[in-house]
Amino acid sequence: QVHLGESGGGLVQAGGSLRLSCAASGRTFSSYAMGWFRQAPGKEREFVAAITRSGTRTYYTDSVKGRFTISRDNAKNTMYLQMNSLKPEDTAVYYCAADPIDRTTIGQYQQEWAYNYWGQGTQVTVSS
Q1: CA atoms of 128 and 118, how far apart (whole Å)
Q2: Phi, psi dihedral angles at 65 (to 5 degrees)
Q3: What's the pLDDT tens digit per position in 36-48?
Q4: Cα distance between residue 52 and residue 118, in whole Å
């Protein structure tokens, strides 16, 4: 069992930055690839970014490339999402999730079925 908890969300103006954290407890954090998803009001949850177990490979959805950076610190059992140049369309609840397998394509990381554990989410609101 892995318990995930997100933090770092909040209200920020367009162009601003936030850093989300996902703290994990339970089984060995480094055994899991990790992902970030988000769900905007009235929309389906969508993939944002993923990182392999060792942190050597990262994957991003096109809309956040160059603005968001996913990283992890296995010694601290924590994953991060640095979000810069935020836009109103980034407004959503952000979720972290744990995947027991290092996938080889972004298409696999985009699938919710790949993830065994999910956090409760943290709200990010970007004002224009």
Answers
A1: 30
A2: -60, 135
A3: 999 999 999 999 9
A4: 16
- How confident is the model over 70-94, as pLDDT tens digits? 999 999 999 999 999 999 999 999 9
Are 97 and 35 contacting, i.e. CB atoms less than 8 angstroms apart?
yes
Kindly tell me the burial class for residue 27, based on how many C-beta atoms sit within 10 Å of its own C-beta (0-12, 13-18, 19 or more).
Answer: middle
Q: 58-60 and 2-7: which strand pairing? A: unpaired
C-alpha closest to that of 19 among 5, 34, 6, 32: 6
77: its two tokens: 């059992």
How many CB atoms sit inside 10 A of residue 52's CB? 19
3-class secondary-structure state, position 46: strand
Distance CA 94, CA 119 (A): 9
Cβ within 8 Å of residue 77, ≥6 positions away: 23, 24, 25, 29
Alpha-carbon dihedral 101, 68, 121, 43, rounded to 10 degrees: -100
